[in-house]
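Hey,

The postdoc asked me to send both predictions to you directly instead of through the lab channel. I've kept everything plain text so nothing gets mangled by the mail client. Protein one:
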Amino acid sequence: MLLTISTTHRPAADLGRLLHKHPERFQTFELSFGKAHVYYPEVTAERCSACLLLEVDSVGLVRNRNPDQGFVLAQYVNDRPYAASSFLSVAIAQVFGSALQGRCKDRPELVTTAIPLAARVDVLPVRGGEQFLHRVFEPLGYQVEAARAPLDERFPEWGASPYFAVTVRKTTTLSELLTHLYVLVPVFDNCKHYWVGDAEMEKLLARGEGWLASHPEKEEITRRYLRYQPSLIRMSLARLVEEEEEGAGTADGEQPTVEPELGLEQPISLNEQRVGAVLAALRASGARRVLDLGCGEGKLLRELMRDRQFEQIVGMDVSIRTLEIAQRRLKVDRLSPAQANRLELIHGSLMYRDRRLEGFDAAAVVEVVEHLDPPRLSAFERVLFEFAKPRVVVLTTPNREYNACWDTLPAGSFRHPDHRFEWTRGEFQDWASGLADRFGYAVRFLAVGPEHPDLGSPTQLGVFTRPS
């Protein structure tokens, strides 16, 4: 399989510096599935082209991975040596790793310089047809040229194949181009040659940062990249929805604030407003020992750590992987002993009584309840309000009525693929008031985010207070 990257940037030979491969050398790299060769068929002042040619040893792959398996013809005779696939993504990461990560010691300014680039993949399987090819590349700003190959030129009556010769063009950075190819080539092929687990999900989210969350085909890209594994897909889409919400700015009706020193408008995302409202309620309660239940990747925890009022902070989540991300983002290993003693991350479920949650002044439950189906919601109510019973509970959930303000959200759809429900303001207030009566709390309600005169605010917040 062959990938060719070309530029007309001047001097065009700068492409060699970005790729960290000298144009005058033919280089070969040993990979786990065969060999990769890099060479330059064209180097002039006006144009430079670099080729990445893969030799996939399909026989060696079968022998190495299935030594006891019987002969299966399809394992030996297939399109893997000739068609672009996840093997090409692995080769891009290993052979062009520095360029993919945006590193260039000799000319660091080149890394962030948008230059005219074209990438050609001579044989790209596109499961979904040419229209899918355009739907994926064009929202990213690429011009797309595609020529479909017949199944067999000798027998045109057999029809067309799923293979295309594809060229995409854009003025962009080399790192961005390689990132898009790295993610999307296996998506078009709709197959991967290796196990897909949590690490692959993190790869997708890392490589998709800044573009995947807003892509109109993000759900299909995610499903294909993660090989249709439901739990990984739900988690990935949830985090992408959160990223899109944070980056939405004024497009979703959020009000910008003005930076007084610069006089520039800096939009505050709905998530930032939500975290700020929860933090203000916790401060006003006078709490010193605080729980963040369903803490996720630690956004609220980070703000709590910055405020010396909170002497003991515990974050709990059901996902060990999410807790690991929170630990990394909070840089727990770099905290001073005094700071480290204030924070604890624990693994646990809100479905079961947990004595570790007892004795706290306050608990924050931010965008959690809507992920619980009715039986689990009932269990959560008892775990928190009957057994843990902090003095104050600050709880947020989406306002379903406000969904009509988002043009990109189809009518009747939830904001998040894992939501089991979304309440109207009346439904939330009925549930919260009944909960407060049952467990001896008082509750007051606050709006978070810009308020529509008829539909209310995007987030609704309840502050539950238990008499001393």
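Protein two:
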Amino acid sequence: MEKNNKNLNLILAGQFVSQVGDKFYMLALSFMVLHTTGSTAKMGMVLAAALIPSLILGLVAGTLIDRCNRKMIIVGADFFRGIIISFVAFFYYVGFLNFYMIIISQALLSVNSAFFDPTVSAVIPQIVEEDELIKANSKHQFINGISTIIGPAAGGIFIASFGYTMIFTVNAVSFFLSAIFEMFLKLPSNHRKGKIKAKFTKELVEGYRYIFKDRSLMILLFTVGVIHFFVGYIEVLMPVLAISFKDNGPQVLGLLHASFGFGSILIALVLSIRTLFFDESKALFISIFLIGIIFILIVIPEIFSIKSAIVYLPLFVLLGGSIILAGVSFKTLLQKNVEIGFSGRVFSIASSIGNSSIPLAMIIFGFLLEFYSFHNLLYVCGLVLLPISIIAYKLYKGSNNG
């Protein structure tokens, strides 16, 4: 167990360093593109370039993750991300960085993420005992939550104090440091003894067959799509809710984000210290049920004409906590039930489903908000989530019992 803890700590240390640097970078890049071009459309293109390649590659990247040395994928992805951002820093410093270079760099970073993110999730069950998976995933989520808060806050100060070149350089260095931490990982093989590697296309098809023949796995992948879809609505909801407070909109938006982040970190911290009182499947579907309840509760202040931001803050704390509980439970269920030799493919597909659900939700709900109030949409979403959570849980339990 000592060796396993060392491996996990190396991954967490590398993740913390690189994620804080990455939050610096994305904040700086968004501001720079908007400031230099004055175009929100171009800023959107930059964000899309960071997402689309990983969505597409996620459908096939898992096969390579299961075929290749996972340590080399993790180390190599962070190393190449450091190189890519080093070029961005250099070209910005000499005055040659243009919009198209930024798009290309974002696309290349997205390619690396398509391999790195699922590999980390697939590796965790190889380096910790099964009964420690919840704690390990919670620690990983806690690191992500802390970096999400520290990164943008510190990034804004760095931009004002040191400029974009320093921000880009710091992010490049953070990825190199992360790669150095990860070089000391000692991972067991992800291949079954005596198994000969098949052709890439055959293993790709084999991975999809593995998923489609497992009913419980299909239900879990459907569930991750549902969770991320409604997370996408929350991203749209918060600024719309904040604007309803008129002059205090920016302050309210900051409070909502802070409350949501606090709830996320709090639950991740608790789960990293204590184990769940019930199994992960119950935790997953209970958390989805809670999200539905919270959606409905957010409507209540509007019904009674309560115009105080304070009443919303505890609800967003609960919302952030419920989403983290769902995410940690989902990841742990996959890690426990998916064979190591298929885990790269499964987590890669799960990542694509989750990452595509959020922007899809933003587009759909952004359109619907042109015609319906956010309160009505919240109420409907809450009523939809309640039966989905119950039905999905019964189906999941039924598939396992069968």
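Summary for protein two, as requested: The mean pLDDT is 83.

Thanks,
C.
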